[in-house]
Description:
8-stranded parallel barrel, about 15% strand
Amino acid sequence: MKKKLCFGNWKMNKTPREAEHFLSGFSKKISPKNSDHFAIFPSPVLCGVFTNSYPSLDWGGQNCYFEKSGAFTGETSPYTLEEMGAKYSLVGHSERRHVFGELDETLNKKNKASIEAGLIPVFCIGETESEFDSGATLDVLKKQIDLGLKDVDLSKVIVAYEPVWAIGTGKAATPEIVENVHSKLREILPLTPLLYGGSVKPANAKELYNIKDVDGFLIGGASLEVESFCQIFEEMSVS
């Protein structure tokens, strides 16, 4: 059954005051019955704002380590996230892969640790522009899935397809590209919710969500403003 998931990745944006302002506006805009369709991934220092200011809104960690505790300076335990009220953990975002050099084998450990801690991992996969241009998209995605989700219970994971060349560039994959990729992913992951991410905006949300195997979005820049974030959901609702 098709989902309706509207997830926002704030990356390293917003101060606590700005987050409070966003949540105040968001709580007035969205009815409680629709709040379970949303989740936000804030910077880790903002987690307390979510727990204290809007506990009914689902949120997740942008990153977590695969150990429960220990001498890992700068890392966050998935158990800590869960105890603070997180529902999700973001694993394998392209910035973690390409900026911080995280490997699929490491991401596999993070997926398993997240599930063990009681979180739902949102596992990001995607190809670079050169891989897309060379026609290697499906091979790249299959490898990322095979390694990153090895021995992982697929009923406890959400997968987000984010072509690297469409993240924060203003270039959105065409509906034809998204439909083709998501249909292939559905063959591999028949029961796993599939999100699309990559320059999703109110203007293209309806057309993208109308694609059969798109269960929702992982949204970057447009999730930073209440109006655009909510408008994307409204476009999904009239699809």
